[in-house]
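Backbone shape codes
____________________
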Amino acid sequence: MSTALTSSQSRFLRGQAHDLKALLQIGAKGLTSAFLAELDAVLEQHELVKVKIGAEDREARDAMIGEIVEKTGSALVQRIGHVAVLYRPSKDHRQIVLPRK
């Protein structure tokens, strides 16, 4: 269950993410349950997160990003090189108000 975004919402979130630093990084061990648990907690707290992916192969990065989006229920806002921007609204305290269209 991933979050669906309109093009204007994606544009808005890209602007919000511009000044963010990557909070998490996937290393040589790849996608682990500990990483997913940490990402889930960070998404709940911040809603908008940059993740740095250490895989050298572009297809491997795309596969990892797809798996992250699927397992966390988040939306891929943007992917540039090794960095992916993910968004998932918080269940308890929403901070980011998305534009309607």
